[in-house]
Amino acid sequence: MPGRSPSLTSRHHSSSSTSSSSSSSRQRKLQVQQGPQRLQKQFSRLLRHRPSATDYGEAYENLFRSKVFQSDLVVKEFDSIMTELRQLSMMASRFPEFDVAGKEMFLDKMEEGSERYKLFMKRLELCDDPAAREYLRYTNAQMLEGGFTMQVMFEGLTQSLGQYRTWLEEERRVSSDPAKHQAFLAGFRQAWSSSAMGAIDMSVLAQMADPEVVVKAQKDPEFYKCIREISDNPTSETMSKWLDHPTIGPFVGAMWKSMQAARNRGQQ
Fold first, then answer.
1. What is residue 23's predicted lDDT score, i.e. its pLDDT?
2. What pLDDT was estimated at residue 175?
3. How far is CA 36 from CA 30, 32, 40, 41, 81, in A?
4. Which of 183, 199, 215 marks a domain boundary?
5. Separation between Cα atoms, residue 36 and residue 57, nearest integer Å
6. How far, in Å, CA of 96 to CA of 148, rounded?
7. How many CB atoms lie within 10 A of CB 156?
């Protein structure tokens, strides 16, 4: 989940936003690290109801064989949500290049897609289908291994989208002045490239990552821990910690190549 990045209009704003970024990051970490009661309750429930599926892949496959997904409407809705979010994620690294109207449209679509996904997951949570509950238990168990929950993930996304809205308003204010606008865009591109959404070119990752490699990585208990670390600090140094991992390493290698592609495009 991308964190708050420095403001782009002045040194004062940069200092203020950097402080805000550190504070925001600490708050998110405290929410996970100092919220033991909530996490312990969730973890206790997971221990009492250990997933019967042997891995994430099996739980995922069982979900699509469940009675919930016997409905054509459910299948179409799920496919629509996943397709939209995948397409948006592939466009994310190019977000700074959009004009003001394009940025606003992108953020509108991201908010709409994330809300649809959140609602869909809530419906799974409330249904009485064993396979759906199994899938959610397995997913939550993996997330807890990474030190966060699905709720924290959605909260982080909402916070990030709010920050992007702030950037959009800043650009709107300076867009009538060509010099100020260009200065803003230069700083914006630099700040965006430091975020997870800007640092990794998802369109390149989709081409480079073998589906079998992705599935194998997702089955590993440390998968979400890896994703959390890279999202918080999307750098070569962070990725290098995982490159030699027997199951997650190949996927991280594809992520590293996609990050290099994003950097090369930004330097052109």
1. 47
2. 94
3. 10, 7, 6, 8, 32
4. 199
5. 29
6. 29
7. 20
Query: Using alpha carbons only, what angle is made at residue 38 by residues 37 and 41, rounded to the nearest 5 degrees?
Result: 85
Range of the domain at 51: 11-199
Cα atoms in the 13 Å half-sphere on the side-chain side of 180: 10
How many structural domains compose the chain? 2
Average pLDDT, the chain: 77
The pLDDT score that the predictor gives to residue 41 is: 38
Residue 6 falls within a domain, yes or no?
no
Q: What is the DSSP letter of 129?
A: -
Q: How do residues 205-251 score in pLDDT, each as one tens digit?
A: 888 888 888 888 888 888 888 988 988 888 889 999 999 999 999 99
Domain assignment of residue 144, yes or no: yes
Helices 223-232 and 130-145: angle between axes, nearest 10 degrees: 50
Residue 97 DSSP one-character state: G
Of 228, 249, 226, 198, the residue nearest 90 (C-alpha):
198
Q: Based on the domain organization, do 101 and 193 belong to the same domain? A: yes
State residue 107's pLDDT score. Answer: 95
Among 146, 177, 199, the domain boundary falls at: 199
Structure tokens at 249: 């390493």
Q: H or E element: which one contains 96?
A: none
Check whether 31 has a pLDDT greater than 80: no
For position 241, what pLDDT does the model report?
A: 92
